[in-house]
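Reopening: structure tokens for the FE2/S2 (inorganic) cluster complex, inputs below.
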Amino acid sequence: MQTPFVAVAAAEAIAPGKFIRVEVDGRPYLIARVEDRYYAVEDNCSHEDYPLSYGCLDGRRIKCSLHGSRFSLETGVPEDDPADSPIATFQVRVAEGQVWLDPSRPANGG
Ligand code: FES
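Re-run output (same inputs, fresh job):
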């Protein structure tokens, strides 16, 4: 059976506390590393369709730079107004020195 996971970056290319933006099949994703855990979310704020990669990490949250909503990297749930709907999160794995993303479906149903 073919795996849905796609290699998107060298694991060491993302320093702890940093993120990168990648595209898979023309869709943008934000791949973040907090300590030794990696997270993947859609690179799109649910408030006004604005790239979250213009923002910054705040612990295990990504903060939108347009109006300041912070989203959990684990659940996609917004923790501040004005956003009121979650962003999609995706499964990631690290293997063979690479970060692998499953873009086939959101992990949180978002
Ligand atoms: S566009 Fe992100 S909080 Fe408004």
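DSSP finds no helices and ten strands in the chain. The chain has a mean pLDDT of 96. Marking as resolved unless the reporter disagrees.
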